[in-house]
Amino acid sequence: MSTTTINTPTGAAKTMVLNMGPQHPSTHGVLRVVLELDGEKVVKAIPEIGYLHTGIEKSCESKTYSQAITLTDRLDYLAPLSNNLGYCLAVEKLLGLEVPKRAQYIRVLLTEMTRIASHLVWLGTHAIDMGAMSVFLYCFREREDVLKIFEMVSGQRMMTSYFRIGGLALEPATGWLDRVERFIGLMPSRLDEYESLLTKNRIWMGRLRGIGTISAEDAIAMGLSGPSLRSTGVDYDVRKYFPYSSYEEFDFEVPTRTEGDCFARYLLRVAEIRESIKIVKQAMPRIPKSGPIRTDAPGIVPPVRERMKTEMESLIYHFKIFTEGFSPPPGEVYQRIESPRGELGFFVASDGSPKPYRVKVRAPSFANLQGLSKLCEGRMLADVVACIGTIDIVLGEVDR
Amino acid sequence: MAEPEDLQIDPVTQRLRAWDAQSVAEVLEFRGERTLVVPRSHLRRVAEFLKGEPDLGFDFLSDVTGVDRFPVEPRFELNYHLVSILNRNVLRLRVRAHGHDPVVPSVTTVWCTANWHEREIFDLFGVRFEGHPDLRRILMPEDWEGYPLRKDYPVEGPR
Question: How high is the ipTM of this complex?
Answer without folding.
Answer: 0.89
